[in-house]
Amino acid sequence: MAPTSEDRKGERIAKLLARAGVASRREVERMIAEGRVKVEGEVLTTPATVLESLKGVTVDDKPVAAAEAARLFRFHKPSGLITAERDPAGRPTIYTALKNALPPGTPRLMPVGRLDFNTEGLLLMTNDGELKRAMELPASGIPRTYRARTYGNITQAQLEELIDGITIEGIHYGKIDANMERKTGRNQWIELTLTEGKNREVRRVLEHLGLETSRLLRTAYGPFSLGDMPRGTADEVRPIDIERFREAMPGFARNEAQDPASKKPTTAPPPRGSYRPEGPERKRTPSRPNDGPAKTRAPSRPPSRPPSRRGPGDSRR
Question: What are phi and psi of 64, to 5 degrees?
Fold first, then answer.
């Protein structure tokens, strides 16, 4: 029988599988509940199982390859795509577009947070479930910046009140740094930066202010910006930039220090038939999204806390 967390020597299997890029921790827990994960041929019954390595672990009867070095990709998500692997209603997903944006052989990628069906812009993708989870947690304080094209009456003074947060229908939204970029009559572009990323937060806050949002674009997530990347394209973040970012994230560098092996790149190819679904890397030079959003700036180093100036925005918008 596999040891549980009471016999603590190693790490929970959900964390190991997430780091190996199989799925997020929550998804791994669902896989275990469905009986899809085995250890030495024995069906796993609890996500509390602690292992020192993934040797002998299979998912859907396929051996799990050793974890690779973390990789991170920028993807300019167009509107009209679901941020999911599949949609029961048959609507196109981000993976449909990623098949054309990334070459064969790219490891399975998971989205960092979400953008809703009609929201476009920067969506980060990674093969590392632990990195994904750390970047999504509100406690990490990573700023997300959005630009919204809205219609209605609003003043800069009203937008500045959002800096103290706002409660809407019993849901409290934390600090939002909002800035009026330009205004023509009752139409305006507004830039908003937040760190919590609650479901559809930007749209709900703007609607509460009496504004209709006709376009919503995420322009940055932490130090990673959309820049001039065309819709539907993707490129890979340099490993050195990933490492700098991880080191700056509260708590994450400490966890990695306790497990230095997790940062070592794996150069050997995965065994034939191993569980590592191929998913969409192509390096492209950034280009400007249509409709001319204002330039976004990527800081030279990842900030360890939200910047004080108006800037980037979420997980589900």
Answer: -90, 125
